[in-house]
Amino acid sequence: MPSTETFRIPTRSQHVPTARHYVRKALADWGITDDLADRALLSANELVTNAVSHCRVSHARVRVTLVLCGPDLLLEVSDPDRDRLPRPRDPALDEGGGRGLALVAALADAWGHRQGPYTKTVWARFTLTPAEADRA
Q1: Rounded distance, CA 80 to CA 60, Å?
Q2: How many CA atoms within 13 Å lie on the side-chain side of 16?
Q3: How large a percentage of the chain has pLDDT more than 90?
Q4: CA-to-CA distance for 93 and 91, rounded, in angstroms?
Q5: What is the biggest distance separating any 2 CA atoms in the chain, rounded to whole angstroms?
Q6: What pTM, to 2 d.p., does this model score?
Q7: Topology adopted by domain 3-135
């Protein structure tokens, strides 16, 4: 049976560290450490930062869900701004942002997005090594 952790944070940048804390705790509780934890945590940071930065719905909350099912770890970040879909960019070298989705693509085994009736969800999937799956 899959293990799931879900939490919500306000769409304010000062709450991104709170999201990282919850993700780090869930991964540690499942015995996921080292490289996979680092990749998942950095991806969560990028996806939550994007959701917080780009959501244009007043008083919205970002939902973060982690699902551990067999050899897969799924990270989902949802917000109610369903029509503002993520688009990878190719920023200039002197731009301070715009690399988050490229970073997630490099860190995760797969990533994508989907629209629900009232939300959009950006997800990243990571495959556990056999040793990580045995610990989880």
Answers
A1: 7
A2: 16
A3: 64
A4: 6
A5: 46
A6: 0.90
A7: Heat Shock Protein 90 (3.30.565)
